[in-house]
Amino acid sequence: MLCRYWPAALFIIVMTIPAAPPPGVEQRIAALLSRMTLEEKLGQMSQSTSMRTPLSDPIREEIRKGRWGSFLNAGSPADRAEAQRIARQESRLGIPLVFGRDVIHGYKTIFPIPLGQSASWNPDLMQQAARIAGIEASSEGIRWTFAPMIDIARDPRWGRIAESLGEDPYLTSVLGAAMVRGFQTESLSSASAIAASAKHYVGYGAAEAGREYNSTWIPEVLLRNVYLPPFQAARDAGVATFMTGFNALNGVPATGNRFILRKILREEWKYDGMVVSDYTAIPEMILHGYAADDRDAARKALAAGVDMEMVSTTYFDHLKALVATGQVDVKSIDNAVRNILRLKFRLGLFDESPGPAATAGITAAALDTAKRLATESVVLLKNDGNVLPLAKSIGKVAVIGPLADSPVDQMGMWVMDGRAEDVRTPLGVLREELGDGRVLYAPGVKTSRDSSRDGFQDALQKARLADVVLLFLGEEQILSGEAHSRAFLDLPGVQEALVEEIAKSGKPIVAVILAGRPLTFHNAAAKMNAILYAWHPGTMGGPAIADLLFGDSVPSGKLTTTFPRTVGQVPIYYAHLNTGRPAPANELGIPLGNPVNPVGYTSKYLDVDFTPEYPFGFGLSYTTFEYSDLRLSASRLRKGGRLTASAEVVNRGVREADEVVQLYIHQNAASVSRPVKELKGFRRVHLKPGEKAVVAFPITAEDLAFYNERAQLVTEPGTFHVWIAPDSTRGLEGEVTFE
Ligand code: BGC
Question: Which atom of ligand 1 is nearest to the CA of 197?
Answer without folding.
Answer: 10
